[in-house]
């Protein structure tokens, strides 16, 4: 009887602590993110470029990024969505975590000035440039079922692309985490249903991800499952890998929230 009471006391104490932390988080004030990057702004110096490649519609690419490098993902035609997963290069058991990215920043919106976290609470990527601000952390990429429902026949999809890419680096389906999809304007309406806002997509949109750790990145250029125009052909995307300055102490991504600052400190400690 005493043991049961003791367990209940622990449960009650944990619940009280959870409620205290939740209340504190809801009252926390995130810094406003920087203004979106203009479509004709943020040119990349040719001397900084390491590599450039085009990824056709429905295909995928695997990119190895080192800490201190950045990747520009560009959508020249304005018709693509790009789903991304990533693992830490030195230990692939650490991987991108969309749920923690949302929780730590108290928002399901990821845009310029925000970060993408790993499942170890470290910063994998910082969004240092972003013309779109219309990215999806909730729905995920296409599957064989969603592609067949849209096209009426089996077609290439993000799930298959991720499985193929994972196999090439010695990983399997169980190693594939939920993805973030760029240029995917998904929001939630008043009834809790997902909404696709086509007017938020523009030809020439791009997003720049600065790698805060060495990473293996997979990008799938398949139509998003919620895109009402997904039966229309997507365009190719452009990937530009380049050298980028490290995050300064006043970097907007580092200082966006107390949680982001702690995640950066944890990441810096790993590479100290």
Keywords:
272 residues; alpha+beta; single chain; 13 strands
| Number of strand elements | 13
State the helical fraction: 25-40%
Count of DSSP-assigned helices? 6
Strand-residue proportion: 25-35%
- In the sheet with the most strands, the strands line up as 1-13-3-11-7-6
Low-confidence parts: none
Mean pLDDT: 90
Structural class by sheet pairing and helices: alpha+beta
Oligomer: single chain
End-to-end separation in angstroms reads 50 Å
Shape assignment? globular
Using only C-alpha atoms, the radius of gyration works out to 20 Å
Give the biggest beta sheet. 6 strands, antiparallel
Number of domains: 1
Q: From N to C, what is the helix and strand string?
A: HEEEEEHEEHHEEEEEEHH
Any overview of this molecule?
The protein has six helices and 13 strands. The protein has 272 residues and is an alpha+beta fold. The protein has one domain. A six-stranded antiparallel β-sheet has the order 1-13-3-11-7-6.
